[in-house]
Fold:
Amino acid sequence: MRERDVLWSWPAAFAVATLLGLLSFAYYWLDDVVRGHPTPALEPLVEELTGYWGAVLLVPVGIRLARRYPPAPTPRILIHLIVLLALSAASTTWNWAARSLLFPALGLGRYDYGQMPLRYLMELPKGAILYVVILAFVVLLDRYRAAREKELRVAHLEAGLARAQLQNLSAQLQPHFLFNALNAVSSVMYEDVERADRMVASLSELLRASLRASRDQQIALAEELEVLERYLELMRARFGERLRVEVEVDDGVRGARVPAMLLQPIVENALKHGAPDPPEPARVVVRARRMEDRLVIEVRDNGPGLRGAAPIGAGVGLSNTAERLRALYGGAQSLEFDDAPGGGLIVRMTMPFRDSAVPAREEEAWSPSAS
Structure:
């Protein structure tokens, strides 16, 4: 990494150095005033500004070396000691040269920096403090950035795993659905060829709709209801007048995003396990409503209820639906089974209400929600 990775900017660095130089000048000049022997303000001003400006020139060198040779046991410690001595000497030399030029130019006379060998020794502790601060800052900053990059990599991996899991679940659902649909067609093929032909036509339309829906893991509820209607056309050809379906959707809910192919396996389960024997009608009621920030979808049948319903996980469709809800929404979803008043089973699904008119963020679309 280079210095600009630390948000290094030469204009900003010199501006900060100038500000620090002015503050340091004010401190030393006021100290002389308090002691009763003030010096001309220009002298300490030049001294402090040149000192901080020289530091700005040398700090990037310290940053580069701190990153190239992270503090560690010898021989790197020896490297940093040599660098410290070199930078301290360079800083002291800069101060002497800059002030020796500026003092006469500003009418302050010849600049006296004292005995130079002792001056180098005197400035060394201050240089050591600054160098250690730079080392600590660079090491801590790089470790923080490394931790953040690791977190981002882990997040991307988790998102990729969630995406792969959802795609795998969708891939499982399609063959399962197709197998059951073809099985339904075969059950009437030799009894009523015309009805079987209508079922094949409905199946073709349903496959087209499901393929369109499979491009996205989440679609609008209105589109999901259209896919369900294609499936119900297939089932009407099988059940005839016995099939009674009601769809009740509250205003403003049709635009909510739901997992693609969410309703079909639930309704299929209702017809397979919840339909009473002929000649009793097979009733299915699909309801969708919004409760604050939640979307609640219920599928009710008129079967035997929990006593005769297939438990969750008993079939590919139901277990697949449960896994997809968990993968998409984490702990912010639920899938429940209850006995309906008056008989039958209610499958109740809740999930966050997200309007399909509002673009979904990638992390919402793929990452499990916090429980």
Q: What stands out?
A: The longest strand covers residues 282-291. Strands lie at 218-220, 243-249, 257-259, 282-291, 294-301, 334-339, 345-352. Residues 10 and 56 are 8 Å apart (CA to CA).
